[in-house]
């Protein structure tokens, strides 16, 4: 009948390192929106805190002057085009020198360029949202006289939230290879929110800190940019210490240290050569190689077993 044996499922020791940092929630993007043209602000259709859709009209500069310029540029363009086409017909009949045609072509192209610029300027009297998000700031009011490139509103994109925090250079490796990053917020129900590493700044700040950006894996309307966060970074260092077995599990055969391992498919033992390390104070001895992680090793009665003997595990 199978011999009953006690085994130990040998596992490599792992060291868990955990670090905590303080950080803050940031939006995906923040941008100052401005007109490319200036003039009286005819319509300002949003206020701070308003939600905007991509392509939504935000503000309008009085377009009257730009409409007049467009009509004038259009007339000049039509005239220049017509003259160029007439001169081109004459040139094709070989009754006009090429330099004269070149001058007419240059005039035509200049008029076309002015016409296109006037159309663009008229289009630029309307300011539209480049993405969906929220109005963060609105430093101007209706009917203000606006200059080109003057900020009309500041919009934020919150389609993705991220948390930023600073770390010392000595922790770069641990954070970069972390097994998990979790964030806690002061709002009830928002603890252990999982995050994914986005980037680590490649240059330290004036305080010798490196900025880290992590993306929150879950979104919520209750989490807002500017909120503080506590970030917890966990790093499992596998095989930080060698595997160990009780000294009584080791026996020698031809001067080679061995242990009995159990093949759980047929429940038979096999003598496995091992390389031993240092002896521990708790009656354990290090096994540097020879056995696999989580492999069952017989820890008692090793001298009464023989190769391929069928066994029954007492403490599976």
Describe this structure as you would to a colleague:
By secondary structure, the chain is α+β, with helices and mostly antiparallel strands. Helix content is 19%, strand content 43%. It has three helices and 24 strands. It has helices at residues 64-92, 98-123, 172-176; strands at residues 3-5, 7-9, 13-26, 29-34, 39-44, 51-52, 57-61, 126-128, 133-137, 145-146, 151-157, 162-168, 180-184, 193-200, 209-216, 228-241, 243-246, 251-253, 256-263, 268-273, 275-279, 284-289, 296-298, 311-313. The strands form seven sheets. It has a six-stranded antiparallel β-barrel. A hairpin with a 2-residue loop joins strand 18 and strand 19 (256-263). Helix 1 runs antiparallel to helix 2 (98-123).
């Amino acid at each position: 009948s199978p011999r009953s044996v006690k085994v130990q499922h040998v596992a490599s020791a792992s060291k868990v390192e955990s670090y905590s940092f303080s950080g803050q929630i940031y939006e995906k993007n923040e941008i100052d929106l401005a007109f490319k043209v200036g003039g009286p602000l005819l319509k300002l259709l949003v206020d701070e805190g308003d939600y905007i859709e991509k392509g939504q009209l935000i503000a309008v500069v009085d377009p009257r002057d730009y409409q007049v310029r467009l009509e004038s540029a259009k007339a000049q363009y039509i005239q220049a085009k017509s003259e160029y086409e007439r001169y081109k017909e004459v040139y094709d009949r070989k009754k006009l020198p090429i330099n004269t045609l070149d001058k007419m072509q240059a005039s035509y192209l200049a008029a076309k360029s002015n016409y296109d610029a006037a159309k663009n300027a008229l289009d630029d009297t309307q300011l539209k949202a480049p993405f969906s998000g929220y109005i963060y700031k609105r430093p101007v009011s209706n009917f203000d006289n606006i200059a080109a490139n003057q900020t009309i509103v500041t919009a934020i994109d919150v389609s993705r939230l991220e948390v930023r925090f600073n770390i010392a250079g000595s922790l770069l490796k641990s954070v970069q290879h972390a097994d998990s990053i979790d964030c806690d917020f002061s709002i009830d129900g928002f603890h252990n929110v999982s995050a994914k590493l986005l980037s680590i700044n490649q240059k330290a700040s004036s305080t010798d800190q490196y900025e880290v950006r992590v993306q929150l894996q879950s979104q919520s309307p209750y989490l807002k940019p500017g909120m503080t966060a506590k970030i917890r970074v966990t790093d499992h260092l596998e095989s930080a210490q060698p595997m160990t077995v009780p000294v009584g599990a080791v026996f020698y055969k031809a001067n080679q240290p061995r242990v009995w391992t159990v093949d759980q498919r047929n429940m038979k033992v096999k003598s496995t050569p091992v390389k031993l390390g240092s002896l521990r104070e708790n009656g354990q001895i290090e096994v540097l190689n020879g056995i696999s992680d989580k492999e069952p090793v017989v820890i008692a009665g090793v001298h009464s077993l023989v190769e391929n003997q069928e066994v029954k595990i007492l403490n599976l």
